[in-house]
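seq:
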Amino acid sequence: MVENFFEIQNGYFTASEKNKVNDVNLVIENQGEIVSLLGPSGIGKTTILRTIAGLQKLSKGKIKLGKRFLASDDIHIEPEKRNVALSFQDNSLFPNYKIIDNINFGVKRTNGNSSSINVNEIIELLRIEPILKKYPHQISAGEAQRVSLARSLMSKPDLLLLDEPFSNIDQSLKDEIQVSVKKLLKRINLTTIIVTHDSYEAFSMADKCGIILGQELKQYDIPYNVHHEPNSIAVANFLNKGIFIDVQVVDSECAVHRLRHDELGEIRGKLSNNFPSGAKVKLLLQPEDLIHDDQSKLKLEVVDRKFKGTNFIYTLKTKKGEHLPVFVHSHHIHQHEKSEQFGVKSPIYIDHLVCF
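struct:
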């Protein structure tokens, strides 16, 4: 039987009555995988990281790293003996030491992990060369985050924990650093758990993504499945990727399943869940699901239009008052104004028919 690199078994994580997550089961099968924990602020994500690092005690359950239990009902390995590095969201730098000395503290506390990484590479990757001789009070919050990350990387941990690591970094620099950090983590085979409230960051950085809502780990899967096949209405609503509309299952027995909406007509695709023919269900409709077609006979009224750079998001209104989001490329031959009629390609085909 192959041993998992990291496991949480029925873990209960508690910081307060509101800030807790119950009965978490999470597995990282292989060393070098990156996992993201996604959820709203104050839900308990940071509490999980602090508990894995040993800064808080596990309320119940087990945490295992490699062949060793870090925490259980009767075990609590001290933080300094875990070889787990936690990079905080807030400034956790030593205020009386220069930035370069803060980074070198990570080198001093290394525990023999043989990953090939050097301080100059990290400094260049995180763009912190200009601030090495400054003190923490002389740098920005985003720079402090990058320095904290550098210090954690230099400690060469067995497990790296990142708490909102890019939240204070300017957007123009954030995407580039995210790509560079992910490449580095993969190259040195460093297992990482990232906490974030940004779904784009969670999906782009991680091999697997966990959604934490209502004091539970609601879904744990590859990012593609979390996005396209959320396992509950709660997860779909949190990701805010679309709306639910009322439809009826026409045929669930054939290769291509068929649904019917009173105004949109027939909707085809593959049902993610099993429903019998005739069942009335709620279908998740995401902005990329509907295709604009000026020549289509299926017309809906435009009630809103938002410019998103490469795309517009139009909001269309059905006669029942449903508001449907639709992506249209910003280079589309013409724009549609409010109250205009907007054509939708029919019949509608959606790869993943996510229904509840």
